[in-house]
């Protein structure tokens, strides 16, 4: 006998049907990104790897999946008021793309030190960018609240929304279709949307699979939140993984991560740089630092080797040329 | 009424059936590489682009297609004598992979200044590398002739062989299946195998399509050969496009290029660097300089803009970290 669901987390938790609906909608809208392999990388890692190259996704990251799925499910009048989000860049690019496709105006609040290519990309898609005086992610959320109040925009959360999570889940669901033998998923996490999506995708596919989340050592928000038992905000120094700096995990996502008892590990900045280098040179795809934390965790032995195939979710490729050059020429 | 065919070129010219046979064989052996698009790149180029990402191919270049196709068609006793080739690197990697898969020993002669990752890659696949005293491609062919004499190896030409050309053609045939609306192909060329393969693939697909070959300004061997009416060797300074330094076009390939009246253009070193940068940042794939000459030709206006979609064959991604860093940080 099930009790009535009362908590917001349980009410809003997306279901497998939501993921399948998102997948149907997104089929012709996004790229079915390849799952890449490299013997050289397997040797380096000491285990068989498959890398889902969401860096080759439209807008250069998986974020477009959730943004499109959320935007299509909004009532037309909500879209007509204009869409608003907060982002280090990839969620902004995703929402700008969704606005471009669905004919909705988009405004994004990004920190002043966002990767310039991410800012330019949003503008190229017709999005308005607000950066003045925004020094960090927490400040960006405050500014967005003001803008919403002033202009009546419809806020699309960059990660803490069941429609966004269901969209993100399609990346993992696709991967599990492409590579049925995957036994472990290693997922970058910060707001927790991709990680919650992975949990949901495994459920949707009816697969029991080990899932590990990875954060930078410098921004262990989900680790601390799990210790505290609730989403917890951290002050943190800058990390090269600019996409993994959400002030705290999403409430929905945190609930899903905690319920599924997911292991979260953290990695050093040096390992992230080295992992970018190895991915670029072995797989020939360009990843941003945030996307390389999974390989970094394996290289740094923060997670063990496995017998079966391990999948890395290469979440995005929007890296500045200077950081790319720095990573590939770092002593390895 | 057809006259009897007497020239070697005409006798050995591969036919559509050879391409289809290669495609059948290679289907489970190589990656069906994606055809990538980017709105940012289209804007830069002033035309619609599709990029066939053979940099994501096994061994990091299209060369594995021809090497595998040639090696499988050799008599078993020829394979058993051990395979030999000459290469700046990608043909060597391709043949080493073919030897690895088909159980044949492989020896490759490479110039002393070959990209270290290419040399290491051949060794990792179990190939023996000969570099001592080999200062250029012409010297590499001489050394290979000596080795063949001494050891009885079976020589697999890196580009001038109908089986190699039929294998290379499968990259273009795949592209034409993936992107039926392509109206123009822009193809890096040096030995001419990929270009001859493109001509053959268009014929196989029954498509009338504009095909343009691109060489570095510094190594215009096919341009000079067409002027001379026969394959002509050139002294040339070093180019950043290390894969486009065959001493002269293959005889078979030259005949096919001349018969098809293909336009060949050349591009500057600076444009090649800039094109690497743009491909890396917009398409998120890692290309070596040789693979970027097609976009360089468009950026430098060595070929005109077109109304229909233009396909770039991104031939490979085996670039040294230092050259990659240099290209992406070059003023653009």
Q: Helices and strands of chain A: which structural class? A: alpha/beta
With strands numbered from the N-terminus, the spatial order across the biggest sheet of chain A is 1-2-10-7-8-9
Name the average pLDDT of chain A.
94
Low-confidence stretches of chain A: 1-9
Counted by DSSP, the helix tally of chain A is 15
Radius of gyration of chain A using CA atoms only: 18 Å
Q: Per the principal axes of the C-alpha atoms, what is the gross shape of chain A?
A: globular
For the largest beta-sheet of chain A, the strand count, sense and barrel status come to:
6 strands, mixed
Distance between the termini of chain A: 57 Å
Percent helix range of chain A = 40-55%
Quick description:
The structure is a homodimer of 332-residue chains. With 332 residues, the first copy, chain A, is of the alpha/beta class. Helices cover 46% and strands 14% of the residues of chain A.
Top keywords for this entry?
four-stranded parallel β-sheet; 10 strands; globular; 332 residues; 14% strand; homodimer; alpha/beta
What is the fold's blueprint, element by element?
The structure is a homodimer of 332-residue chains.
Chain A: H1 8-12, H2 16-26, E1 35-36, H3 39-45, E2 49-53, H4 63-73, H5 76-80, E3 83-86, H6 90-102, E4 106-109, H7 116-124, E5 128-130, H8 137-151, E6 154-155, H9 162-178, E7 182-188, H10 193-205, E8 210-216, H11 221-228, H12 251-259, E9 263-267, H13 269-283, H14 293-299, E10 309-314, H15 321-329
Parallel strand pairs in A: 2-10, 3-4, 3-6, 4-5, 7-8, 7-10, 8-9
Antiparallel strand pairs in A: 1-2
Helix pairs in contact in A: 2-9, 2-10, 4-6, 4-9, 6-7, 9-10, 10-12, 13-14, 13-15
